[in-house]
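**Reference record**
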Amino acid sequence: MVNIIFGLTILYLLYANLNNQQANPANKNANRVEGSNISITKENMVKNGDFEQGGLGWNNIYALRKEKDGNHYIINNNNWLIKQDMNLLSGAGYNVQASTQKGTAVGPARISIIFFDAKGQKLPEYYDIQHMHQGSDWEEVNKLISIPANAAKTRIYLLTNDKEGFHCFDNIQITQTVK
C-alpha cells in the first residue's frame, strides 16, 4: 500500500511540474528583453548558425571561411544561394540575431526571411533585414519578427544588397519570443 501511495505522489509531482512548464514557458531557458514584457528562449532554431560544423544545415559549403583564431563564418554576395529552411511555429514571434562583418560590398548586408504555406506556395509576407556596416569589426544585427499564421516553412537567406562584393555572416540565431 505504501508503494502505491509513493508512486501516486511521484506521478502527481511530475504532472504538476509538467503543467507548470507548459503554463509558464518563459520560465524555462528564457531571457527577458530589457524594457518589454517579451522573453527570448535559448533554443536556436537555426542549425549550425555559428558554422563550426562546416556546411551542416547550409547549402553552400564553398562559401565557408576560417579566421586566424579558428572561428568559422560564411561569406556571400548578391545571390540567393546561402539559405536554410526551418519549421517555425506559425503565429509565433521570434528574435533574429546575427553577426556580420564588412567585406568588399559597398551596400548593406541582408538577412532575408520568406515564408511558404503547406502547399509550398510563397507567402506575400517577408522580412528583409538590412545592416549598413559602421566599421570593419563584427557588428550585431537584431530584429523581432512574427511568423504568419498560415506559414508552414520559413527560409532564411544571407546575402548583400550589392551586385558586386561580399559580406561575412556568423552566429545566426532565431529564437522564439514568449510574452
User: Anything to note?
Assistant: The longest strand covers residues 167-178. The radius of gyration is 20 Å. The chain has one helix and eleven strands.
